[in-house]
Amino acid sequence: MIAPASTISVAASPCPWRRLLVSEYLVLLLSVAYVALLAAFSADFRESFFTQPNIENIIATLLPLFIVALGQTIVLIAGGIDLSVTSIIALSSVTGAMAMNGGNGWLAGNAAAAPVAVALMLALGGTVGLLNGVAITRFRMPPFIVTLTGMMFFSGFAIWLTKSKGIGDLPAAFTALGGRTWIAFVITAVLALAAHVMLSRSLPGRWLYAVGHNAKVAFISGVPVNGVIVAAYVVSGFFAAVASIIYTGQAETGSPVLGQRILLDVIGATVIGGTSLFGGKGKIVWTFFGVLFLKVIDNSLNLLNCSLFTVMMVKGAIILFAALMDALRSRLAGGRF
Questions:
Q1: Does the pLDDT of residue 249 top 50, yes or no?
Q2: Cα-flanking dihedrals φ and ψ of residue 262, to 5°?
Q3: Is residue 137 part of a domain?
Q4: In angstroms, rounded to a whole number, what is the distance separating the alpha carbons of residues 249 and 168?
Q5: How many domains is the chain built from?
């Protein structure tokens, strides 16, 4: 059985730059260095970044993104990829809002409207993840194609359901899940801890790494490969639905375009953190560092009044650099560099 991947030992990398390259804290150090550099050369940034409202804004936007990235991390470790997470966020948002809004919601005025809507959103996310997993394992379809077409279909379906309009008038019990940052923080912390324990201290976690390393070898070793892959996509869909609850609560509106622009952030954060695009390697703490780094970059560029196109170009360059780093780390691990 293949054990969870870890970083290369420092002893095996005597050169300082190699030790830094394979360090688990590289991305965190880069985040600190980036902020320190901007603060040293920009007074406007220094005055805007280190304020309580801005820090609270970073945390509020970081939490749901981290939740989606947790599910993406699990799928990537298993050797797949899930491009449908943004469509799950949008479809879950409008479905939950259609059920509980005070105007013409299915459960309008009912005391159970908020909990039933939450359960419906979570079930929908898990179901879409199940469909993705079954299509990939049962019909041997490439994960990229399955989740890409799923993203297109479910995003379009969400827009068709609402005629491109948002749905407001949501119960206060629901909007508190996203509007109160401490509640979102507790939800995120519980999910992150559960994912960490599963990956590092459970048999299913070892199975995930084994499947990501080499599915054929894992199958011969007795690992239920298809079941592991399906479970990974179900978890990813479930986590995307949880993020949808927080995003919808923050916006106080069910939106068919909610989360439309975060796909690059979700994949980028996991890759920047160190989770391999080739499968078999990744940790929850790495993903957190990647999300933090990306949110700091995003926030700082907005504070510097950079255009959306500039932000997208910078993010694209950073993700490409992270992919190159992933390849370089793999070469170091194999002693080929």
A1: yes
A2: -100, 0
A3: yes
A4: 10
A5: 1
Q: Percent of the chain, pLDDT > 90? A: 72
- Tokens for 328, please give them: 């370089």
Q: Is residue 51 part of a domain?
A: no
SS3 329: helix
Buried b (16+ CB within 10 A) or exposed e, 141-175: eebeebbeebbeebbebbbebbeeebbeebbeebb
Spatial separation of the C-alpha atoms in residues 148 and 226, rounded to whole Å? 20
Conformation bin of residue 254: beta by default, left when phi > 0, alpha when psi is -120 to 50: beta
**133 located within any domain:** yes
Q: What are 57's two structure tokens?
A: 């804004």
Over 80: is that where the pLDDT of 332 sits?
no
CA dist., res. 283 & res. 188, Å (int): 16
Measured between alpha carbons, how far is 78 from 127 in angstroms, rounded to an integer?
Answer: 19
By residue range, what is the domain housing residue 102? Answer: 68-259+275-282
Q: How far apart are CA 315 and CA 295, in angstroms?
A: 10
Residue 246, Ramachandran bin (φ over 0: left; ψ between -120 and 50: alpha; else beta): alpha
Q: Where are the beta strands (DSSP E) in the chain?
A: none
Paired with 254 in beta bridges are 167
| Residue 124: predicted pLDDT | 98
pLDDT digits (tens, 9 = 90+) for 56-76: 999 999 999 999 999 999 999
